[in-house]
Amino acid sequence: MKSRFLIRNTKITNSTGYRPVAWLFFMLYATVCFLACSNATDEAAQFFLKGNVQLQKREYKEAIRYYSEAITKKPDFADAYNNRGLAKFRNDDREGALADYTRALDIDPDFNTAYFNRAEARLETGDPGGSLSDLQRVEKQYRDSTFYQVRLGDTYVRLTKLSDAQSAYDRALQLKNDNVEALTNRGALYYSQKAYQPAEADIRRALQLNPKQDAALNNLSLLLAHRGNYADALTYVEQALELQPRQPYYLNNKAYLLLKLNRPSEAFPLVQESLQRDSQNAWAHQTLGLYWLGQKQSDKALTEFRIAEKLDASVDQLYYYIGMVEMAKGNRARACEAWQRGELANDDLAIKQRALQCL
């Protein structure tokens, strides 16, 4: 489920900052490995340990280099493939991470950590079914982990199994009531169901626990925008962008808010950059359509709205805007048809417009 709201990937916090939850698992696994390793693999082990140091320092390219050296020395080194996958994932190479996790599992089919890590990579590369399969594979070992439950909830969201997602987030918070990611993601789920009060409660609680949780900052921004508080909303999404300057959802959300604040010249380059980074985000295409609508270029606006519709027909108010463009072009029948589809999606603006123009 793509939206302006962001489901934040599961992370944990320690004295060195954020690491993937799997860090705990692979460190435990690696300790066992090295106690048992023979002298013949000492050189590979040293490269592996150097890679771990670089991964902890967030020097991902260096970590990848060391893990690759370890693999050269020991081609069946499942831990090195797994950890190189982590480094690639954090360096925005999702496909490379997926390949490394799969290779680790080819070598060791019982490597539970690699299943857990691959679940995230599959989710981020558009395979939520595969992600769920991997999570189910390790459910017995990790079902009492709050981080596992968050990942499970995220996967169910992508599969539009929202009641299952709710249960997983609830379980995550039962296990650890200050899990910031669980609060952030459950808040996003509430928002998608138009349960705005519990959404805000979860998101504000997440920010109390971690004021620099960028996804929660973004999501609070959109809650404020929903109320029409665009200026206040802008301050929160700008804070999110200070933490994650390249995040395409945040770029798009800032562009959307700038349009609402009648600052289209500032919005246009932001939505363009957002689409360069993620061309499949229906919300960004809607924002670009809104820009063209404001510039009175109906054909360009309609093109973007139709792209958004093809990518995700559940985008809020999409059919209201499609109807407005069709009406502006003199296509009353098509406008009424669009508003009727919006009515089926429970879009208040489309319902109101259809009542005024079509009934």
Please provide a written account of the structure.
It is a single chain. With 359 residues, the chain is mainly α. Among the domains are: 22-129, Tetratricopeptide repeat domain (Serine Threonine Protein Phosphatase 5, Tetratricopeptide repeat, Alpha Horseshoe), CATH 1.25.40; 145-245, Alpha Horseshoe (Serine Threonine Protein Phosphatase 5, Tetratricopeptide repeat). It has 21 helices and two strands. Strands 1-2 form a two-stranded antiparallel sheet. Strand 1 and strand 2 form a beta hairpin. Helix 4 (78-90) runs antiparallel to helix 5 and helix 9 (146-158) packs parallel to helix 11 (180-192). It is elongated. The two termini are 33 Å apart.
Name the descriptors.
2 strands; single chain; mainly alpha; 21 helices; 74% helix; two-stranded antiparallel sheet; Serine Threonine Protein Phosphatase 5, Tetratricopeptide repeat; 359 residues; elongated
Question: What are the SSEs and their pairings?
Answer:
Elements: E1 11-14, E2 17-20, H1 22-36, H2 42-56, H3 60-73, H4 78-90, H5 94-107, H6 112-124, H7 128-137, H8 139-142, H9 146-158, H10 162-175, H11 180-192, H12 196-209, H13 214-226, H14 230-243, H15 248-260, H16 264-277, H17 282-294, H18 298-311, H19 318-328, H20 332-344, H21 348-357
Antiparallel strand pairs: 1-2
Helix pairs in contact: 2-3, 2-4, 3-4, 4-5, 4-6, 5-6, 6-7, 6-9, 7-9, 9-10, 9-11, 10-11, 11-12, 11-13, 12-13, 13-14, 14-15, 15-16, 15-17, 16-17, 17-18, 18-19, 19-20, 19-21, 20-21
